[in-house]
Design a protein that fits this description.
By secondary structure, this protein is α/β, with parallel strands linked by helices. Helices cover 47% and strands 11% of the residues. The chain has 2 domains: 111 residues, no CATH class; 291 residues, Alpha/Beta hydrolase fold, catalytic domain (Rossmann fold), CATH 3.40.50.1820. The chain contains 16 helices and 10 strands. Keywords: Membrane, Transmembrane, Transmembrane helix.
Length: 430
């Protein structure tokens, strides 16, 4: 279950078997096959592939970045394998039909494997099957009788002493965070509580990182594909059980929705993230207080959201982590976004668009980290543009490039690599 499926032997084996299966489906001694059925299968596969790209990237636009050329290619290969098998079925007997369908399955597995390698979203079979294998308990956290906070000029790590018997691992639970003020209907959130939070005499008042996934996606992505518990537990192991609390929230409502993280005609997503989420945290958890104890972060769309909330709700979030975000929120094009969100009112969009906000307002008390993949040709330039705007707005920001593109190797590295920086902004460590 933990063997890698995006690197090593397994994807190479699937690639070899898939190509062999595709060649086997394509080759035949029948002249009728070569003159009619094979050309029809190839032409139909090409047409369906082009149609798929046009529908997803140009018409439907279910997510901002669309399908890459590599993904479109492997989608086309999968379609071709399936069509070749279907065109071969009529003259075959049952044994031949099973063989053709088995070959088509290998081609589809190869295509799926190669697409997964593009994003590294499912690095192991355990991660792929996590929705069916894992049971996340419901959130339940009592209040400690006494708490510990750091005095002025000192960090929490300097005054905290790990008690005997403290667990070495944190916990992950799930809980709804309702849109009481916003009216927004999100999916359930995930809450990571580090080992130190399980201390009760006294309990350290830890900072909070509100984290968001991309789109398509949901809160579970950070838990499964992002290895949230492993990343946070490793940090806690190096700091006597101390680590930020992480609340992974849903800013979109579904895999295919895009609220733009704004208060607009689409939804009051900014109110949800800036009021409902912090209100829930304060009501249910014992944490640090004030903007310096709260940060917001995310990947891709979630990264864009984090910058938006940092400039539109700076009284709530004192720092942010923008991993592979965009230079402005989008539904696929600027005109489409402004029309859908604000009825074509450019001034209303500019009032909350982060680059426009930073152009007219300074944020000397806000800290931010931008992270992007070195080979991310689409989001890399946008991240640099947002970073430069943040510098001009007086923010204390960093810009980091890590190996990879727009994929989970970058997203995981972005969180892992910036945890020390975030904890310093929080005053958790020196």
């Amino acid at each position: 279950m933990d063997w890698p499926i995006t690197s090593g032997v397994i994807p190479v084996l699937l690639l070899a078997l898939g190509w062999l299966a595709l060649v086997g489906l394509a080759v035949s001694s029948s002249t009728h096959w070569w003159s009619r059925r094979f050309p029809c299968a190839v032409l139909l596969a090409a047409a369906l592939t082009v149609l798929t790209r046009a529908v997803v990237n140009d018409w439907w636009q279910p997510w901002p970045d669309g399908l890459t050329r590599e993904v479109v290619f492997w989608v086309g290969i999968g379609i071709l394998g399936l069509l070749l098998a279907l065109f071969r079925l009529p003259p075959l007997r049952w044994r031949g039909r099973f063989a053709a369908l088995g070959a088509a399955l290998l081609v589809l597995l190869m295509s799926g494997s190669q697409i997964n390698r593009q994003y590294d979203q499912y690095p192991t079979l355990r991660v792929l099957l996590a929705p069916w294998l894992q049971h996340t308990p419901k959130f339940s956290a009592g209040k400690a009788a006494s708490t510990l906070s750091a005095p002025g000029g000192r960090t929490l790590a300097e005054v905290w002493h790990r008690p005997a018997g403290l667990p070495t691992k944190g916990t992950i639970t799930t809980s709804p965070i309702p849109g009481v003020k916003s009216g927004f209907n999100p999916r359930a959130a995930y809450v990571y509580l580090p080992p130190a939070y399980q201390a009760t005499e006294p309990r350290p008042l830890l900072p909070v990182l509100v984290l968001m996934a991309g789109q398509p996606g949901g809160p579970a992505d950070w838990v499964n594909s992002g290895d949230l518990a492993g990343t946070m537990d490793s940090f806690a192991a190096e700091h006597q059980g101390l680590a930020p609390i992480v609340v992974v929230v849903d800013p979109t409502g579904s895999d295919w929705a895009n609220t733009l993280c704004m208060d607009s005609r689409i939804a009051k997503a900014q109110t949800y993230l800036a009021q409902d989420v912090p209100d829930w945290v304060h009501a249910h958890l014992q944490t640090g207080t004030g903007r310096t104890s709260f940060a917001i972060g995310g990947l891709s769309l979630g990264g864009t959201c984090s910058l938006q909330l940092a400039v539109n709700a700076p009284q709530v979030y004192g720092s942010f982590l923008d991993i592979s975000g965009q230079d402005e929120p989008t539904l696929g094009s600027h005109d489409k976004t402004v029309q859908a969100a604000f009825g074509g009112d450019e001034a209303a969009f500019d009032a909350v668009d982060p680059l426009h906000v930073m152009a007219r307002q300074k944020f000397p008390d806000t800290a931010g980290a931008f992270v992007v993949g070195k080979s991310d040709g689409e989001y890399g330039p946008q991240q640099k543009k947002a970073y430069q705007a943040a510098v001009a707005a007086g923010m204390k920001v960093t810009f980091t490039e890590v190996p990879g593109g727009h994929d989970w190797t970058v997203f995981r590295a972005g969180l892992r690599g910036q945890l020390t920086w975030l904890s310093q902004q929080f005053g958790l460590i020196r």
